[in-house]
Amino acid sequence: MKDPNSSAGILTIDMVELARNWQRLKSSLNNADCGAVIKAEAYGLGAGRAIIQLCQAGCKEFFVALIDEGVYLRKVLSDVSLEANIHILGGPMFAGQALEEHNLIPVLNSLEDLALWKRKHPQAPADIHVDTGMARLGLSPSDVVILQKEPQRIKGLNIAYVISHLACSEDSKTTMNADQLKSFRQALTLFPGCKASLANSSGIFLGDKYFFNLARPGAALYGINPTPGKPNPMSQVIKLQGKILQVREVNVPQTVGYGATHQIKEKGRIATVGVGYADGYPRSLSNKGFGFLGGVRVPIVGRVSMDLTTFDVSNVPKQLAHPGALIDLIGPIIPVDDVADAAGTIGYEILTSLGHRYQRIYKTSN
Amino acid sequence: MKDPNSSAGILTIDMVELARNWQRLKSSLNNADCGAVIKAEAYGLGAGRAIIQLCQAGCKEFFVALIDEGVYLRKVLSDVSLEANIHILGGPMFAGQALEEHNLIPVLNSLEDLALWKRKHPQAPADIHVDTGMARLGLSPSDVVILQKEPQRIKGLNIAYVISHLACSEDSKTTMNADQLKSFRQALTLFPGCKASLANSSGIFLGDKYFFNLARPGAALYGINPTPGKPNPMSQVIKLQGKILQVREVNVPQTVGYGATHQIKEKGRIATVGVGYADGYPRSLSNKGFGFLGGVRVPIVGRVSMDLTTFDVSNVPKQLAHPGALIDLIGPIIPVDDVADAAGTIGYEILTSLGHRYQRIYKTSN
């Protein structure tokens, strides 16, 4: 529906690099399997495309947050005659018949979930989530004590994986990881012979103790650095470019944008790009973020507004800064983590906020 | 497609209050007309629904940012046999034939735009945007000087409105507003007999000098306070509720969420809600935002994560804080401006970030 000529932003998503990132993680996991977390539209990149690409690359265990997401992705797979397991991290509550109908594997997060599943679908596979330090979802330590005393609560369940989730895996120095590993191992004694899964993206880089049977990377697949402070072992997957709508010669004295937060001090040129916070280019980048045009770093001046952002292009050769020219906003030259740093958030939020007005180009070959 | 039972977030959009907000602004404009800015999906609420509702309420001038948005909305109107003018703020560049085919009115922002339009569509209506202090889009002061010297550049054009945009209208004390008003009046002498438009939402509250022929409110329509520091004259239009997935009894000592940023000091209860930053509930609310459950203020504890947020519900009666219960996140009890304050942004960014996993309910009668 979008006319490429009239698009003010172009989002290129490199499906080859996505698959390559997955292979890279898989190859570092020894004999453990590598799943993929594709919740929230595969972190904003498009879950339908991602599940097909990764399934064809060999991935067989996919994780989403909500039942609706699982229902949609089961249909996507079935339309192209592919099969894979789809796990629902948010659990089975309020599911009606959807889990059964669409062959989805819920993560059981509480004693209530266990009881519900045992009553309704004792034969159907389910995961069990043991909380070891997030205090978000999963069986609490006191729940685990109850299970130790009352093993009939899990008897006869068809357990796919026992899982837990690391809270601080990107910080390889904290003792929290080892504490969570210890708690997880303790909990696993309740489930002899069951497969287990602990590591998220950064967890894969904490060593093979964290591998168990299955890793569940998300962020690293999409180019976020799983080893902050060290070189990023992953490839960038997205490139976001904003189109210049107008270039303006400016003279002192003048202010730019809402709230007049930027004062122009020297003669120069301002380029206005048709991408703003409604496109997920965060307002917190105002007077802080930057792009690249013709290899030159161009800082954001003034506030990012809803549909427009203004860049100082005074240092760019005049013939390169014209209406229609594209400024790189995210991509290999400005990794998503750098944009997130400038915006005061994490790459995850940058990706999941990517908007819907961009022309999206999916690159499927080199 | 979304199963209401399985939705983890419910977004109710009150179309009656939207129309009422528009009427309220219109009635304060004396004889000037009241348009509506519905770019970026009507600030995230759904532009297709909004244009029909406001058109039926009497609005005839709609403003969007991009040509794609205009093309879509022309189709929406035509499907229900409604007519209205749709203006494209981003201008006519890169349009191909879309403007003509879909009867869209471009805003001409530069001398190049003027020349393009005069060459291609001299009879078709267009707006002219004079920049008076945003330095974002629009004819610059030096462009205006050129037009004074070379009036043939605008001769014969079918001008719908001459427009400008206020940079600091929400600050009634700054001299910037009067400066922009003065520059706008000066520029208007170039366009005798043409209709003019300056005021955005907050501009309407700066007095009738700012009315001209047409006001272009956006934010106020959607419940954002156009008079910060004074009581909000507008009604709230949206209500966002998050469903509790799990409630956890906690004991000292324990941390909550990613990065272990929240330390539990007392015995209490934590409720995990299935809404996170991938749904546009910003990560910057971590350990700062709050919701309401059963009339009780429940603070966010720990980091907002992608699909989940944890609230301290220790002060809520136990029978009210259970899986399936709804915590109010935005709405009449927590206006969008208050959520934005807690997140360190503006209501506009909260609204345009509203996600796509919610069950959306459009309320069309009282």
Plain-language structure description:
The structure is a homodimer of 366-residue chains. Chain A is an alpha/beta fold. The first copy, chain A, folds into 2 domains: 15-222, Alanine racemase (TIM Barrel, Alpha-Beta Barrel); 238-334, Beta Barrel (Lyase, Ornithine Decarboxylase, Chain A, domain 1). Chain A is built from 10 helices and 19 strands. In chain A, helix 1 (15-27) packs across helix 3 and helix 3 crosses helix 4. The longest helix of chain A has 13 residues, at 15-27. Chain A is elongated. The model of chain A has no long low-confidence stretch (mean pLDDT 95). Chains A and B meet through helix 2, helix 4, strand 11, strand 12 and helix 10 of A and helix 2, helix 4, strand 11, strand 12 and helix 10 of B.
